[in-house]
Amino acid sequence: MKLVVPIMPTSLEEAQHIDVKHYEGVDIIEWRADYLDRDTILAVAPAIFEKFSGRELIFTLRTTREGGHIDLTEEEYVALIKEVANLYQPDYIDFEYFVHKEIFEQMLEFPNLILSYHNFEETPENLMEIMSELTSLTPKVVKISVMPHSEQDVLDLMNYTRGFKTLNPEQEYVTMSMGKLGRLTRLASDIMGSSWSFSSLDERTAPGQIALHDMKEICEVLDAD
Fold it and tell me: One of 143, 165, 180, 216 is an active-site residue; which one?
């Protein structure tokens, strides 16, 4: 299991003062660029990619339509992703598939897409169909994050992930149930077939994220003989 931690600078100065030593033991950095406006994203990008050179990095631009912080037209969204991606070549580009489905074909030039589905309200009854559609597109990563309302919701996500991974061993899956109820999925990634787990250094980007120092200690316990 790889540990992913988001960074969310809100200014160029804040980005320049990120202390990379705080991210020791983190496998992948997710830059949530939507906490900045378009021009500042382009100004901040060199600092982010330089600071985390040699580390895997996800570029995530979460629009207001998908619960993020930046309001862009579809044309602006695609143009900004392509400008950053072509200049700095992030290891992964997060794309909220069902929100931006109509422009998906414009993203096919990138072989490193994370096709995401986030639902902060529920674990939908058609979760298997959602996972099936995302899997059929063979992205770099299929990412599912849903809100459970019962223990069965959590178990369903774990079971579906294990089943899809067994049937599609070459496909990378990253799945989690949010909130306190779903916290188990952040710890049982390896068992259920999910490759990554998201943790937090300061501010959480999703309900139920476990602090990085706690996550490291838990992983050490789980990995011990």
Answer: 143
Q: Which of 17, 118, 140, 216 is catalytic?
A: 118
Residue located via tokens 């300061």: 202
Q: Cα-Cα-Cα-Cα dihedral of 7, 10, 16, 20, to 10°?
A: -20
**What is the number of alpha carbons within 13 Å of residue 47 lying toward its C-beta?**
18
Environment class of residue 27 by beta-carbon count within 10 Å: exposed (0-12), middle (13-18) or buried (19+)? middle
End-to-end CA distance of the chain: 17
What are residue 175's DSSP bridge partners? 144
CB atoms within 10 A of CB 33: 28
118 is catalytic: yes
Mean pLDDT per 10-residue section of the chain, whose length is 225 residues: 92 93 91 96 96 95 94 96 95 97 95 96 97 98 97 96 97 95 89 90 65 77 67
Work out the number of other CB atoms within 10 angstroms of the CB of residue 180.
10
Count other Cβ atoms within 10 Å, centred on residue 69: 16
Contacts of 158 (CB under 8 A, 6+ apart): 175, 185, 188, 191, 192
The question of whether 165 is a catalytic residue gets the answer no
Residues 93, 60: Cα–Cα separation, whole Å: 6
Question: Does pTM surpass 0.85?
Answer: yes
